[in-house]
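Aim 2 progress update. The chain analyzed this quarter is reproduced below.
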Amino acid sequence: MRARLALALLAFSLSLGSAPARADQEPAALGGAPAPMATHWITLGTMGGPIPSAERSQPANLLLRGPAAFLVDCGDGAVERLTGAHVRLEQVRGVVLSHLHFDHTAGLAAVLGLRFQTNVTQPLTIYGPPGTKALVAGLLAAMEPAVEAGYGLPGARTILPGDSVSVVELSDGATFRLGDIAVTARQNTHYSFQPGSAADARFKSLAFRFEAPGRTIVYTGDTGPSPAVEELAKGADLLVSEMIDVARTLANVQANTPNASADALTGIEEHLARHHLTPEQVGHLAQRAGVRALVVTHVVAPRASAGDRLGYLGRISRIYPGPTVIANDLDQF
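Predicted structure tokens:
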């Protein structure tokens, strides 16, 4: 089994090819002509919330298409990780939110605030499920005192942060474009409201398929087992999937909130088990979808050691034999 895992990981690393030295530059082809634009995925933050980690930032990813960058989820620490990926804030042309849990959105305030502070006026479109407009409006409203104060210089011109920001709300089956990348959204099972209910209409969690020329990447967002996500991922070159270790996550919640009631813990455990994917479920998703390679993120397994990660890979590989990586922050694929 270990030999099989080693071969799979080696094949994956070879399939990735050489990444550009900097994410804000495209290498030149032989003879000095511009190289065809490449498509890269960087896992900026790989720790599922809400418990913070010293080793991993909250969920955030970066889709790079040539010099253009798109944030896919924007958890706390996303701006700092952008710096680590050598991506300037003005390169970020869009933000795609899978759902509105805090661990996936807390970094958006920093993105908007730093755009204002550093005078970034490049248009930014934020895509997300119903409620995204209210979220962004609230963040912009929270910035008003700092915006009005400015730097205290009489007559200084103030560019309002919202002037260059627009929001598009998405539902199941929505399609849109990020430059030359075609994107499809599907509702997943991170929530389990009754279909057609008022709550189901108000709260949606989405997975995304990004089809760039020459490469297709699917991002599950947070989800439990989902036929819609399986269909969305069919034949993808790369599947970026969440994963959870229910037992270790529940133990960490208990350690951090020792006074939590038995009812509260039962509810948390049910949510973790129903609305996230175990290693085996990740393997089934990748195998049934027939993806070429698998990256696992949203690693809700506090202080997971190298041995733990190898164990997760073993559980996945018993079902999905393809190349698989448990991602760290700032890994590039």
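Residues 1-11, 13-34 have pLDDT under 50 and may be disordered. DSSP finds twelve helices and 14 strands in the chain. These observations will guide the mutagenesis experiments scheduled for the next reporting period.
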